[in-house]
TrEMBL record:
One of the GO BP terms on file: L-arginine biosynthetic process
Keyword flag Iron-sulfur: no
Pathway as given in its UniProt record: Amino-acid biosynthesis
Protein name: Aspartate aminotransferase family protein
Annotated keywords: Amino-acid biosynthesis, Aminotransferase, Cytoplasm, Pyridoxal phosphate, Transferase
Domain of life: Bacteria
Molecular function (Gene Ontology), one example: transaminase activity
Length: 384
């Protein structure tokens, strides 16, 4: 049997810390490696597989569309693209009226930054400490952690960073040249930190008073992860730009920016060769149908509450704090988290970090209660 791990190590650009296993199959919340070992997947491709792995309805939609039409540039209209655009606007906050389709989260953020600058005729952005928005040059400039940024400087100018959940610091950072405020509703990579009601009420007020656009990054939180279809629903946010990706198309690469009427762009100012291709649109339509027809946001809320109750009832002493909203779970330890992630993998549970001391769990919203119990049992054994 080939050692695919060694092959990737030899031929792949060295950008990923490999976990030492080769995954070859998935079904719902479970994946299998090349040796046949089974795992409960609480990484889901960094929050991609909200409806589980290899969902048969998505596989069917992709196969049927692949036999019909795979690619179609934005210069031509397309039935699947049109249907997806309409569906996204029907389901999103009322402020959002238009859609730009792309291929990833960082591309969605990159487009939102460009749209904000050209629509406002202003050039500066206020972002949050601990915020993560992507790795392309614009999205990286909006990302806080210096370890991601330092090797690539100089980056795009005009980005200010203030503490999250601190309205006073946010207000003080705004200038006459502020085009937009860019925030996550829950900071994922930054340690699973949810915003507060008071904070987002202040954010809305600051944007209105200063004629500033609001960009909300829901690349990780969108499509049911937090117990609502979009996390901004928890705070009645009406963003001007909503960035989506990860779980939008059931695992097929796709991103989107949803725009309010304040966004004014012209043909040729931005584009994407593969954005909105019929294959990805068919997968997204199938994914959204599964999310809504099976009430998966509500399932995430119920299962997240179940996890919280079970875990806090037996909270291990090395846990500093549990932060959880829906099935977006961060367990902050009093020590480095990596040894416990490795120990969980040995126990058949795949988890990931969100910083040096936070263990992050992003299971499929379709995970069963029995599987949640298996995850809880492994977690408590490892952390104790």
């Amino acid at each position: 049997m080939s050692d695919y791990n060694d092959i990737e190590k030899e031929f792949g650009v060295n950008l990923f810390n490999k976990r030492g296993i080769t995954l070859v199959k998935g079904h719902n919340a479970r994946v299998w490696d090349q040796d046949g070992k089974e795992y409960i997947d609480c990484t889901t491709g960094h929050g991609v597989a909200n409806i589980g792995h290899a969902h048969p309805e998505v596989a069917k939609a992709v196969a049927e569309q692949a036999a019909q039409l795979i690619t179609c540039s934005g210069s031509f209209s397309n039935d699947k693209r049109a249907a997806l655009m309409q569906k996204l606007i029907d389901l999103s906050p009322a402020s959002l009226r238009k859609v730009f389709l792309c291929n990833s989260g960082t591309e969605a953020v990159e487009a939102a930054l460009k749209f904000a600058r050209v629509s406002s005729a202003k050039s500066e952005f206020v972002c949050a400490m601990r915020g993560f928005h992507g790795r392309t040059m614009g999205a990286l400039s909006a990302t806080f952690n210096p370890k991601y940024k330092k090797p690539f400087e100089p980056l795009v100018p005009g980005f200010r960073f203030v503490p999250y959940n601190n309205p006073e610091k946010l207000r003080a950072a705004v200038t006459d040249n502020t085009a937009a405020i860019l925030l996550e509703v829950v900071q994922g990579e930054g340690g699973v930190h949810p915003g507060t009601v008071e904070y987002f009420e202040a954010v809305k007020q600051i944007c209105t008073e200063n004629n500033i656009l609001l960009i909300i990054d829901e690349v990780q939180t969108g499509f049911g992860r937090t117990g609502k279809l979009f996390a901004c629903e928890h705070f009645d946010l009406q963003p001007d730009l909503l960035c989506l990706a990860k779980s939008i198309a059931g695992g097929i690469p796709m991103g989107a920016v949803l725009c309010s009427d304040k966004i004014n762009v012209s043909p040729g100012q931005h584009g994407s060769t593969f954005g909105g291709n019929p294959l990805a649109c068919a997968a997204a339509l199938a994914t959204i149908e599964i999310l809504t027809s099976e009430n998966l946001p509500q399932e995430a809320e119920k299962k997240g509450r179940y996890f919280r109750e079970k875990f806090t009832a037996a909270m291990p002493g090395r846990v500093r704090e549990l932060r959880q909203i829906g099935l977006m779970i961060g367990i902050e330890l009093k020590e480095k988290v990596q040894p416990y992630i490795a120990a969980l993998q040995e126990r058949g549970v795949l988890a990931m970090p969100a910083g040096a001391t936070v263990l992050r769990l992003l299971p499929p919203l379709t995970i069963s209660y029995r599987e949640l119990d298996e995850v809880l049992s492994a977690l408590l054994d490892v952390l104790n």
